[in-house]
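S1.2 Input.
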Amino acid sequence: MNNIAITIPCDSTDAWVVAAYDDDLDNIENYEDPWRTIIAKKKYYHGIRVRGEKKNVLTYAIFSNMVAERWNEVTQKCISAMKLDQEVKRILLNENK
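S1.3 Output.
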């Protein structure tokens, strides 16, 4: 795997977090600003301390574990995650030929 850069659409990561944690929400990518309207609405989001409007690396590091663990569910709920997943798989399959 030479010269491959995988980029994550930063506008989508908040929707992916919600998709990983909230089974009861659909059309997550249609929500305007999921960070503000869902994740940071209260001090805690699923037991994880969220410091208001301010996003930080530590909070995302904690959220990323659940996103990775529930990646299949995230790709089912978020088109952007599904597209990224398909593109990465396509690139990796082509690299291994």
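S1.4 Remarks. The CA atoms of residues 23 and 48 lie 17 Å apart.
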